[in-house]
Amino acid sequence: MRVSAANQKNAMSEQVQIREIRNEDNRHIAHVIRSVLIEMDAPRVGSAYADPSLDSMAEHYAQQERAAYFVAELEGKIIAGCGFGPLPGEGDQLCELQKMYLLPECRGLGIGRKLVETCIDHARRMQYTQCYLETLPNMLAAQGLYQKMGFRYIDHALGNTGHNACPVWMLLDFAD
Questions:
Q1: Domain range summary for the chain, segments of one domain joined by +
Q2: Which pLDDT tens digits describe the chain residue by residue (176 residues)?
Q3: Domain 2-173 sits in which CATH superfamily?
Q4: Going by fewer Cβ within 10 Å, which terminus of the chain is more open, N or C?
């Protein structure tokens, strides 16, 4: 049975389509993000939960230069998302990995890795040299993924994200 379950997960992962966000995805990705934050018992204030752009992500990312947001879609359903954009207050070489959230049923399938790789690839093409992120202490699986991808912990926040409830900071140097 384990082989069958593993094959089933692998098949599911292969069916996932990663693409840029569209206007019709807004309410779906907002639901994914809010439901994961509730699951993780995240503060509603000082986290992505309260971001003014959360209900209009497609427009928000389309209006920014050197930014993009990607969703993972399975059988017409948005199951995850991740984006990047300039980090306010940090110049033009440093971007921020933003709003990387996956529904519970799609974790552990490599979808998060694919989303982060897509963001990093696009950020490099947009001439960023580093990527920063903030997360919550209890999001250990995400932190493990980030570490495997080369992110390292740093001891202070960078830029001005407005996420004062996220006390875990990580940085990736693209040259590494």
A1: 2-173
A2: 555 554 555 556 678 999 999 999 999 999 999 999 999 988 787 778 888 899 999 999 999 999 999 999 999 999 999 999 999 888 899 999 999 999 999 999 999 999 999 999 999 999 999 999 999 899 999 999 999 999 999 999 999 887 777 899 999 999 86
A3: Gcn5-related N-acetyltransferase (GNAT) (3.40.630.30)
A4: N
